[in-house]
Design a protein that fits this description.
Oligomer: single chain
Distance between the termini: 65 Å
Helix content: 40-55%
Number of strands: 19
Strand order of the largest sheet: 10-11-12-8-13-14
Number of helices: 21
Radius of gyration: 43 Å
Strand content: 5-15%
Length: 721
Amino acid sequence: MINIHEKTLKDLEFHTVLQQVSEHCVTLLGNEKALKISPYKTKEELLVALKLTNEYLSSFYNDNRIPNHGFDIISKELKLLRIENTYLEVHSLKKIVSISITVNEIVTYLKKFIEYYPNLNNHASHIEVTKVIIEKIDNIVDRFGDIKDNASSLLLDLRQSINKIKGKINASFSTALNMYHNLEYLDDIRESVVDNKRVLAVKAMYRRKVKGAIMGGSKTGSIVYIEPETTLQHSRELNNLEYEEQEEVIRILKDVTDFIRPFLTLLHDYQAFLIDMDVISAKAKYAKAMNGILPEISEDKSMFLRDAYHPLLYLNNLEKKEKTFPQTIGLKQDSRIIVISGPNAGGKSITLKTVGLLQVMLQSGLLIPVHERSTICLFDRILTDIGDNQSIENHLSTYSYRLKQMNYFLKKCNKNTLFLIDEFGTGSDPELGGALAETFLEEFYHREAFGIITTHYSNLKILANELPHMLNANMLFDEKTLEPLFKLVIGQAGSSFTFEVAQKNGIPYSLINRAKKKIERSKVRFDATIAKLQKERSRLEKTGQSLKLNEKKKIEEADKLEEINEKIQKKLESYQELYDSNQRLIYLGQKVNDIAEKYFDNKQKRPLMDELFKLVQIENSKRKKVSTKQKKVVKEKEKQVKKEVEKTVNVIRQKKKIAKQRAIETPKPKPTLKVGDRVRMEDGRAVGSIDKIEKNKAIVNYGIFTTNVNVDQLELVETKK
């Protein structure tokens, strides 16, 4: 049973997607239903919904367009039909005819083109096609919306009598008009119309000489409107006939309404069917707008989203004519959790939200913007912890809120769950929060849940590297300019570029070096912790020995202490392993740093590649199981490599000395900098452009930020063209 929480939909901005889908609906009821779309509870219902939308989408690209499904709402008419002795007005009958014709056309069309639309045809198969209602209403209502004369014999007789009386009224009125006109009793306008009756426009002074009923007068009082006495008798007879006509019309409408009343369920189905078609059509139009497709749905728990776009971001950028960067990401049994790291503003959160939103959209019957070779699986539950997590109403801090969320996750997380956590572990002391986050992640891992998290914590990156079914990933950055490339790379953790970003923001190099030295100091603290644990262990062992003498009385206490002892032993071993591993990595990092410095100085790629390749060879040689003879050969090769490296180092040093001497002897004149020139700081790598120069100070624009620097500290990279 699929059950996705409302908070997940809110975190992933699913309701914004529904708002955009609803805008493609052509009816009010369709719009309302589109806004209520939610994830399906069963896989069977979901697959049907996806196939319906996909088939409707295909109609946009072939010659067999599905007929229009627009209709006038008949909800009021359906309510009236439920009440006995009521009748529908003519305009309501016209609406019923219209909706019946529309449904009949669509159902008949889908049956005709069943090869193109098998699922839509199946969806419409329960709708009865009938012309009985249409024919019945058409027999009494003409195309202008009036009751036909031949709707009943009595109505025909009444209308014929009415026409005769109207003829007599016109004749008698014309006689009176001519007579009083000749007597010059009438005004220049001669006649007018009052209460839908022809009246004589009599001069006020002659009103007593004209026989008839006074119907009113002009504003000035100079004219009195009189209906001639000769037409009054016929008018009374006309009123009686019109009343009888209205009575007969109501009787006919009641008769037709009673005929339609048994079709109440069918008419209800008609409207519900057209509402469904409106929503399906809106889903298809939305999919077309963002190139959405129906990917393959895998039976096992594995998903692979290739070139996946965030729908809201894609459509927003499309309006602005800006580029949207797609992401490719996959989850399966042997790589079910991905830890994304790297600097801020690189796209980590968007990648996380893209996966979550696309998953929710698909499980709600919406097509998604991915490559056609993508595959996706279904999850029973999707858990999210994204965005601003402070709760002012509940007086919760960010960390308290996140702990509540983790508690909820622990209750619900299982092998059919997808969890998405942004900035995992933040909100508390970095070490303690990181440790707790690591424990949570281990728990999710052991429960075989699937998930994606974003983090800056190194311990979570290390955990992802150690556990076999967890992967590191990072968002690529240009290491020179620190510009985001918005590309996800699976398999390696990302650096936060802490020192590089600090340098780019103008932090003095001396302070950055002091910070780097503090990293070395942490190793001393690490050794102290291990020593403390060893003392604790020896103390506990002595305590354990003394307790064994009194084993019979204190058996329970001794068992507990032994358990504590075992835990500490494991911790000690794991700390020792981590320390050894870190020592080796620091050594390798120093080696790579030395080579990078050489390349920074001489910009020679070949020696750089040679040295890196040799370093990799040396490391790989350590990993292989080799015989004693082979070890001797490897050692000899290593000695040769070291000698060659030392030689090249000496050569490079000599060259550097010569270059420095020449620079001292013949210092290059500093170029004059101007606005628009591309420059960099003497001790930096990031390149920016000069926006403004004032009083030997330059404002340098690095794209993301600007900084104020002395002109003397800048090197010219490229002059403005």
